[in-house]
Amino acid sequence: MFPRYLVDFDLQRLPRVRTDVIVIGAGIAGLFTAIKASETKKVIMITKKSLLDSNTRYSQGGIAAVISDEDSPEYHMQDTLVAGAGLCDEQAVNVLVHEGPDGVKDLIRMGTQFDIENGELALTKEGAHSHRRILHAHGDATGAEIVRSLSERTKQDPNIELWDDHYVIDLITQDGECRGALVQKPDGQRVFVEADATILCSGGAGQLYRYTTNPDIATGDGIAIALRAGAEIRDVEFIQFHPTALCYPGAPRFLISEAVRGEGAILRNIKGERFMGKYHPQLELAPRDVVARAVLTEMEETKVSFVYIDITHETEELIKHRFPTIYEFCLRYGLDLTTDWIPVAPAAHYMMGGVKTDLHGETAVKRLFACGEVSSTGVHGANRLASNSLSEAIVFGRRIIERIAELPPLNRTPSELQVAVHRKEQPQQAVVEKKLKLQKVMLRQAGMKRDAAGLQRGLDELKRQSAYFEYALMKREEYEFANLLICAMLTTKAALLRRESRGGHFREDYPQRSDAWVKHIVYRLEEGHLEECIQDA
């Protein structure tokens, strides 16, 4: 039983702010849509930390778009469909590959400085791509450059009001229509922000797992908020684990970009043996799920917690020029990318599923849109193709703004909504302990390799924590844990239901892909109860 709202409130007693568009989140999806919306609308952009805190900032590899004359949208589409393992929405992929180049031009117009070689945009290749189509910036700092350029534009835009350190607790709905958001200010006060359209750009749920490349803010807020508001949640059993995150004592699970393998790096086990030949003909450039499971298998067989990535055969000049961020980060821990094999292990990286949308980013709740990792547009299927995430954000961000332009103004009648559940006072256990316990359950029972017994144990354990929704929540970390718990239960339930292996979902008790499961698992909340629906792909 999930609550419709996490906290008690009375809209009549709350301060009210009105705007045209609310943008929730500050990655590429949030920044880009806010800038596009501000061309004709007033925008309030709400971030729970700051403009510079998002998954986008840590994106190294780049953004996939057909730029080269040797490439084509058809090639990009085929690569995306193959990686997506039969679950991509072909219409959505078609939109992505044809509209991606124009989205890149928008980014350039907004000030993003992609790398240039010989007077042309520099392109590289990543896993499962048939052609060089990945644009990058400062070698391996593409996300940081995009965030830099877009955040500078955002700060200077008179039509964008920035609310840093604010937390969206829930969306306010009436008669199946989103009217805005219940927001908590840094001082703990709450306010109702009313808008003609609300866009969720809140990122993914990497913090479901103990080891992740995602920052601390990736707590699945948007997915849980949207579920409570009446939206549909799709494909959340498909979690992408990046095969090569730094695994070294004292260091965070820092991403070692797929582009390193794209430029020729090889993977070796603890014995120094190159092993990908045993697993896939594309070797290190196989789809991410294949490489990640191969790495995990090698770790299990050799009884160590890492493998090595080796690019020492390339020149020092190339490595430092192409991967300056990774080179400098590793050096902090005494690891030299030019001479050392770097210890790596898989880490949770990306959620393929999320809030189900149509081809214009609109959810099942009118006036509520989702963009970026929080959304499920159908582009990624069961396994996202490398560097398609940034492309998806700009392509569907543009489409969302086109759709919002067609919306009639919200009928701004006073909302008489009061929620009074009389929640209980919380016990003293620290939220950080609860979160760590949840992460361990997910890592052990709903990680890269799954089976029915483990998933059921995990789900039972998560259900035991569901009494948390009965407590009075006051702080950001308390809301975050409630949202993580909802996401964890959805992911585990869907993984238990899907009795096959496909893309980012692998069942040891059902190791083969099954034609009977060319389907999507969709969840929706009806009067507090979770409804499960299986839809044909």
TrEMBL record:
Keyword terms, alphabetized: FAD, Flavoprotein, Oxidoreductase, Pyridine nucleotide biosynthesis
UniProt function note: Catalyzes the oxidation of L-aspartate to iminoaspartate.
Main location group: cytoplasm
Keyword Oxidoreductase among record annotations: yes
TM segment ranges: none
GO molecular function, one term: steroid dehydrogenase activity, acting on the CH-CH group of donors
Swiss-Prot/TrEMBL catalytic activity: L-aspartate + O2 = iminosuccinate + H2O2
Annotated protein name in UniProt: L-aspartate oxidase
Key word Oxidoreductase present: yes
InterPro entries reported in the protein's UniProt record: FAD-dep_OxRdtase_2_FAD-bd (IPR003953), FAD/NAD-bd_sf (IPR036188), Fum_R/Succ_DH_flav-like_C_sf (IPR037099), Fum_Rdtase/Succ_DH_flav-like_C (IPR015939), NadB (IPR005288), Succ_DH/fumarate_Rdtase_cat_sf (IPR027477)
EC id: 1.4.3.16
FAD-dependent oxidoreductase 2 FAD-binding domain ranges (all copies): 20-390
Class of this enzyme: oxidoreductase
Organism expressing this protein natively: Paenibacillus flagellatus
Matches recorded under PANTHER family: L-ASPARTATE OXIDASE, L-ASPARTATE OXIDASE, CHLOROPLASTIC
